[in-house]
Amino acid sequence: MRLADCHNTEDFRRLAKRRLPGPVFHYIDGAADDEVTKARNTQAFDDCDLVPSVLAGVEHVDMRTTLMGKEIALPLFFSPTALQRLFHWQGERAVGAAAEKFGTWFGISSLATVSIEEVGATVKAPKLFQLYVHKDEGLNRSMIERCQAAGFDAVALTVDTIVGGNRERCLRTGFTSPPRLTPGSALSFAAHPRWTMDYLLREPFSLPNLETHVSQGTKVATSIGDYFSTMLDQSMDWKAAERIRDQWGGQFCLKGIMSAADARRAADIGASAIMVSNHGGRQLDGSRAPFDQLAEIVDAVGDRIEVICDGGIRRGSHVLKALSVGARACSGGRLYLYALAAAGQAGVERAMGKLRDEIERDMKLMGARALADLDPSNLRWRR
Asked: Greatest CA separation found in the chain?
């Protein structure tokens, strides 16, 4: 299977599975407990049908929208994800370049494998930093100040990871950051010599946004679940979110909102946006899918705050459904991580290009000349 044979997210997933050692692939692909919520994140879109209009004169369509004060060329962006240079040696550099090419937001994680400073200096796309609040207040302050100095455009406070989810695939494979050599993993690494040589011979793996304060994840191997459960601040509350908003002083997003009540609180504290997200099903299994909750949240706060549907996006039609409900934009992680693992920057650009083409084509088939033409009248629910 080659990159040219990849036409959708599932194709990229299959190629990624071939090219990654088992523990690394299953870290991307896996989720919490029985992975019911992960599956539901995409299945939720199947419960809603699009109703197209015709004879609308759609030779040209406008996919632009404004999100957190920045105009973007399409209503889909790269959600921040951790550890990207484990999936391909180009890591965040590849994703940032793709964000520039497609004119959309580029999110990086606190657990990114390139530094805040490098991203600030090299990526011209709008930049979003995903903040994990640690017990070490000095680390929290440091990351915010570094983002300010580097010219980041927004901070997304992650609110759904005060403890790590029960990621059983990672428990079975022994996945850690950095990877730990075990008899089982050694066999998988040996069976993927290209990945192994890249990991061993290229730039040493690190988490440069954390290593000034903590050694876990860079010098001390740890699972992501253990990292979240031991390093992050479980006392974080709404007052802490307000303090972080004040420290940052710019466009401020809360990532991991799933209830209308919490969405109202986010609007009350002056957040610019919320990401309706369950962390890709990697935290609380059995929780609702973002798309299932979207209408309720839009009804509650859609006139007060920008709402982003994060998770489960696999098709351009999924984006149109979320926008029709009232989301300002959509985002996702696996939709580009599989492509990154499959082929680096070329893979990410092909994946986003396919999704962009689907959004444009589906808008034309819907009779929508601009995103504003998408509204609930375009939808019918099966349940």
From this structure: 62
Q: Which residues contact 364 (CB under 8 A, 6 or more apart)?
A: 58, 61
Distance (Å, whole) CA 267 – CA 273: 8
What domain range is 38 assigned to? Answer: 3-381
Distance CA 332, CA 279 (A): 10
Contact 167, 23 (CB under 8 A): no
Start-end of H helices in 6-157: 9-19, 22-29, 36-43, 91-102, 116-122, 137-150
Q: Give the C-alpha separation, 77 to 73, whole Å.
A: 10
Residues of the chain with pLDDT under 70: none
Is pTM beyond 0.85 here?
A: yes
pLDDT at 7: 97
Q: What is the pLDDT of residues 225-247, one digit of tens each?
A: 899 999 999 999 999 999 999 99
Q: At what angle do helices 183-190 and 22-29 cross, to 10 degrees?
A: 100
Going by their DSSP bridges, the two strands 70-72 and 65-67 should be labelled as antiparallel
List the CATH number of the domain containing 256. 3.20.20.70
Amino acid 218: pLDDT: 81
329 sits in which H/E element: strand 329-332
- Split into its structural domains, the chain has a count of 1
Query: Which amino acid, 140?
Result: N
Q: Does 204 sit behind a cis peptide bond, omega within 30 degrees of 0 on the bond before it? A: no
What does the pLDDT look like over 112-146, one tens digit per residue?
A: 999 999 999 999 999 999 999 999 999 999 999 99
Assess whether 88 carries a catalytic annotation: no
- Catalytically annotated residue among 26, 134, 192, 279: 279
